[in-house]
Amino acid sequence: MNATRSPQRRAALAEEAVVAAYVHRYGPIAWAHGALAGEGARTWHYWWHAHLIHGLAEAERHRPAAKRRRLISALLRGVTVRTAGTWITPFYDDIAWMGLALAEARPRGHARARIARVLERAIDPAVGALPWRTGSVLYNAPANGPAAMVLAPSRYGRRAAELSAWVAATLDDPGTGLVRDGIEHGVVRPDLWTYNQGVAIGAAIAVGDRRRAAAVVRAVERWCAADDGLFPAAGGGDGGLFAGILARYLAVAATGLDAEDADRARRLVHRNAEALWANRADGLFPADPRRSAVRSGEDLDLSVQLGAWITLEADVTASGELTS
Q1: DSSP secondary-structure letter at 218?
Q2: What's the average model confidence in pLDDT over 11-27?
Q3: pLDDT tens for residues 191-217?
Q4: What structural domains does the chain harbor?
Q5: Which of 202, 183, 180 is closest to 193 using CA atoms?
Q6: How far apart are CA 114 and CA 96, in angstroms?
Q7: Quick one: pLDDT at residue 110?
Q8: 111 alpha carbon, distance to own chain's centre
Q9: Hey, which bits of the chain come out as E strands?
Q10: In this structure, which long-range contacts are made by residues 101-105, counting pairs with CB atoms below 8 Å and at least 24 apart in sequence?
């Protein structure tokens, strides 16, 4: 196999590019900045940072290296400093993403256990779900799907199953089988985002509901069929991570569902990884896999490059190529 066609090699090159361009060290703190805020800007995004740690932990599972383990430790120290040791923000979706990152990077750490407690206590008993953030009346998939995955292996496993069931009962579109964004004041927000599908798949697998996970995989396949299997693009900023999150949990499905549905998931991941790789340019991946990358605008966002790297690591998982 040509080295650049190896999923491992592609993922390794994407990892190297992200770390070189966006990760900086100042004393004991390691943190990432986003080009979204301007060339050379130094901004810190909690939930982007969670996915950076998660991506590094996945890379460590795929290609173990002492240097990466040291970087993960430095990034975790950075989160401790940036959050004054709390690991908490007002946004429950962000907290859940960090909990998932810690599940990969430090599965027995105190921070992960604290995050699980915070998420469980945030569930509104009158709704059966947790809000997007403190004081909000928006209950959405990107908070409840990741929260279910964080809670599933904990002593709150029953709560996890309830959250996954709530997403299915409340947010599934009866016409397409896709997961809508959320519900606010009794009105369902109809937006269909890629990461909502991903977290629904991941949550269903985490709580042992393989039938539910397979149904969402099939809905995603139908959704993307008209565009040769490519995921809808969501631009830069936060949207740069959306498709990568879907790829991550499709890769989980590719290793955890029956053969036919696993193949569906695997094909979707590989098709999008191939498109991103084919359209990379000047060391960058595009926000939209249908076009070539450019060194300006949304393609410079950390989220976009990180989302592409996550997709390439997902291709490693889905392909089974777990040794470099």
Answers
A1: H
A2: 88
A3: 999 999 999 999 999 999 999 999 999
A4: 3-319 (1.50.10.20)
A5: 180
A6: 11
A7: 86
A8: 19
A9: 23-26, 29-32, 138-140, 182-184, 187-189
A10: 101/50, 101/51, 101/53, 101/54, 101/57, 102/53, 103/149, 103/150, 103/153, 104/53, 104/54, 104/57, 104/58, 104/61, 105/53, 105/54, 105/56, 105/57, 105/60, 105/72, 105/76
Cβ proximity of 250 and 262 under 8 Å:
no
253 to 45, 57, 225, 314, 321: CA distances (angstroms): 28, 19, 18, 11, 16
Q: Give the pTM.
A: 0.95
Contacts of 16 by beta carbon, 8 Å cutoff, 6+ apart: none
Q: Indicate whether 323 pLDDT > 70.
A: no
CA distances (Å), origin 107, targets 182, 256, 261? 29, 20, 29
303 in Cβ contact with 8 (< 8 Å): no
The whole-angstrom distance between residue 67's C-alpha and the CA centroid of its chain comes to: 23
Q: Which residue has the tokens 């490693």?
A: 316
324 pLDDT band, cuts 50/70/90, is: very low
- Residue of 253, 223, 245, 266 lying closest to 145 (CA atoms): 245
Contacting residues for 312 by C-beta, under 8 A, at least 6 apart:
7, 10, 11, 14, 273, 276, 277
pLDDT in tens, 284-297: 999 999 999 999 99
45-49: which pairs have CB atoms within 8 A and are 24 or more residues apart?
45/302, 45/303, 46/79, 46/82, 46/83, 46/89, 46/91, 46/94, 46/98, 47/91, 47/93, 47/94, 47/97, 47/98, 47/238, 47/241, 48/241, 48/302, 48/303, 48/306, 49/75, 49/78, 49/79, 49/98
DSSP string, 110-176: HHHHHHHHHHHHH-BTTTTB--SBTT--EEEHHHHHHHHHHHTTSTTHHHHHHHHHHHHHHHB-TTT
- For residue range 36-66, list pLDDT tens digits in order: 445 445 677 899 999 999 999 999 999 999 9
Tell me the HSE value of 216 on the side-chain side, using a 13 A CA sphere: 35
